[in-house]
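Model: You mentioned two targets. I'll fold them one after the other.
Researcher: Yes, keep them separate.
Model: Target one:
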Amino acid sequence: MPSENGKIGIGMTGQRKCAWILFVGVQMFLAAQASAQAVPLPDLPQARANNHVVSLTLNAVNENGRDAIAFEGVTVAPVIRPSPGDTGWRIHDGQLLA
């Protein structure tokens, strides 16, 4: 409970106490971030447009007993990068084309 001079607890006003708690919290957050190790992510496969058409081939595969879709031999979904003005998409299943 505040005393007559408006101070709470050990001589700090409520606003100053909040600022102190925020300052300590930010310092703890920054210390935790500094000790974290950054691991770079691998580059994802990409499909880009050629003559304003994005064309990519997906293959149905069975990897480790699980059905999956592969792009360029990797079972990671590709990043499809169309450009402004690209009008068409062609996605092939390489297993089904004759």
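Model: Target two:
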Amino acid sequence: MDFTPDGQFAYISCRLDNDIAVVRTSDLQVVARIPGCSHPTGVSVLPSGEYVYLANYHGNNVLVARTSDNTVVETLRFGTQTDYTAVDPNRNEVYVGCPDVDQIWVVGNPE
């Protein structure tokens, strides 16, 4: 789970539903869902709040969604399962954990 920088929305991975719930924090209502996931795990919102990175454990990929309309704009494919994501705001990079091969991948972001 991660929050937009202004704290207005939370992005929560829903493994059993295979999607990401977008929750408005003021009233805890689900306002959108991002489909296309396969056992989603890691979620990281960029410091600008413009994009969210979504790790899909069984999909062997990371989806990049635009937060303005919660639409997937890019799929980053990996040769192995992806589990966690993290953002380094100082380096403008996103880190993706691939536990089955004990690796961490560094990817750029669309900003």
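Researcher: Noted. Anything on target two?
Model: The longest strand covers residues 71-77.
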